[in-house]
Amino acid sequence: MSATTRVPEMFATMVFNDHVMKERLPKETYKALKKTMMNGKSLDLSIANIVANAMKDWAVEKGVTHFTHWFQPMTGITAEKHDSFISPTANGEVIMEFSGKELVRGEPDASSFPSGGLRATFEARGYTAWDPTAYAFIKDNTLCIPTVFYSYSGEVLDKKTPLLRSMEAINKQALRILKLFGDTTASRVITTVGPEQEYFLIDKALYEQRKDLVFCGRTLFGAKPPKGQELEDHYFGAIKTRVLDYMKDLDEELWKLGVLAKTKHNEVAPAQHELAPIFSNTNTATDHNQLTMEMMKKVAVRHGLTCLLHEKPFAGVNGSGKHNNWSISTDTGINLLEPGDSPCENAQFLLFLSAVIKAVDEYQDLLRVSVANAGNDHRLGANEAPPAIVSMFLGEELCEILESIETGSSYNKKDAVVMKLGVHTLPRIAKDTTDRNRTSPFAFTGNKFEFRMPGSTFSVSGPNIILNTIVAEVLSQFADQLESSDDFTSALNQLVKNTYTEHKRIIFNGNNYSEEWVAEAKKRGLLNLKSTPDALPYFVSDKNIELFTKHKIFTSTEMHSRYEILMESYCKTINIEALTMVDMVKKQILPAVLKYSGKLCKAAIEKKTLLSLSCCEPEESLVNRLSNLAACLYKKTSRLDTELLAAKEHEKDLKELADYYRDVIFTSMQELRAVADELEALCSEDCWPYPTYSKLLFYI
Ligand code: ADP
Ligand code: MG
């Protein structure tokens, strides 16, 4: 079969989507379900029963035996508990059954998921509830029902609920604005996301020989190979056959799940690649990105490969990020971040743009929080990803237009036009003039913003909860102001003008990697939250609690619990890494070094006996260096051991503990690594206890 028919036929075969629903549900049931999906109305149990039965029949025809409520707890990955469809009959046989009740609600034990103290105060019981705005799908012979996850007393325990709430918040506020512009056709506003996912692929057999990769997902040791990424020969380079086979297989698995996998290419670092889908609504994009990450790992195994999603698997070459392309659109298909063709559309665009500018400036702390974890700390500000300073890139043209609105001066030197909202038409903002700046954390790229700070392991729910909510908040302020004005056009002009004046400090079109920018940003009063422990406390500031409670995204209790989960996870991650290092030194590195130097000594002695003269300079000098370094390694390991034990003393205060892990433990880890890497460079390859960077990065 040709790809022309094969791909469309394969696409979404594993998804209980609109097409299947239409085909398999009675008309009335279909209509009721659609209504629920559109307006979030609750579903009648009698309807749920019919839907469940149709889903089960469809799934069983495809060989499925189990179902699961698929949810997104605070671990950042997805969770599932499989139940079979079997139901015993009176005569000792079984039939395959799935009820509406089972579809709508599940009850996994919540006690083993991170809850940040909520568990202590509330019952351990947790519930999952079907999110009918996301399609059910089949994975691993199991019918997966996308669900939200909450506790017995109603506290939200997952990443999906707040995401859906944030989408609702921006919908509500954006509709108010559209109404002011006289748009009566749009009945819903949604945010759209296209997450570009970076990853590494290495040989599975080599991966399994490294405890650091197995336990931590990143290498904790490793001398620099002779070649890194300096030749820039990997980026967009021809893809190796083994990798191509993997990518083809991955595309097909994703297409079957309805994921719009579109672009694939080699990335900057050796063994690094990227996959980008066509964008979709934020809820779907989030589910699909989770599925993409899962499939990346699963498919790799089939090809004898391991997929590394960690933000910094290898020192010395780029780490992996996840660019979150984000925009706002109406259900009538209008992209609200796209400059339109008429003066009115332009004015509307500039208002939405102003809202984003104000939101990013006022809530730069939250955007930084949304990308904070131990892994991403290695990337941000390391000249391979944006700095930890949040700023926006708008491009020259847009800046000139805003400048002209602010000062009343002409923006276009040739035509001497003074931009006036509601009067003038903006020029089309060419994509290539806005996409040039690759160093900006938050770049306008023609009709969307590209948030480039998220790390590769992140669920995109976090950054998008923040983006949706902060923009919703500013839109609500704008709507309040405009609704109460008598002269809409002049109020609008004033609003865009004032917003630009007050918030233009957040706009920066230059090189974000430069040292000058760090100094300039400081002058402008922008935050530079270099590490996770620096950033996280901002999440629970009064200003931010007010924001999230106002829009009913989180309660204050939920926010504190999330803060705790994230802080704890930072400490735990570094603790595991440090313990792994100590283990590797004691059980692998030191024994290998001692064995190798023992061999050298023996060889030297034998040589001396045979030749009875002192011609053992290489052996002696090498043994000397090895011995000195081994002593140093031993000392540093003992110190790290002691420091790890002392962490207990800081446990009463999470922030203090996290600072301790960053300042003391992490610093010692880096020192220890330097010594081990020097030893690796001195030892023979066959005595080294695990595969080197050269092998991992270049031999696949
Ligand atoms: P590049 O980053 O190289 O300029 P593209 O502009 O083609 O690439 O798109 C990058 C990602 O942005 C893709 O996943 C694409 O689907 C997504 N994207 C494009 N338009 C939108 C939009 N309106 N909303 C959200 N994502 C979008
Ligand atoms: Mg991009």
From TrEMBL:
Protein known as: L-glutamine synthetase
Listed Pfam families: Gln-synt_C, Gln-synt_C-ter, GSIII_N
InterPro entries on file: Gln-synt_C, Gln_synt_N, Gln_synth/guanido_kin_cat_dom, Gln_synth_cat_dom, Gln_synth_gly_rich_site, GS_Type-3, GSIII_N
Residues covered by the GS catalytic domain: 159-589
Family: Belongs to the glutamine synthetase family.
UniProt GO molecular function: glutamine synthetase activity
Coiled coil: none
Domain GS beta-grasp residues, every copy: 65-154
Organism: Hydrogenoanaerobacterium saccharovorans
Record GO biological process: glutamine biosynthetic process
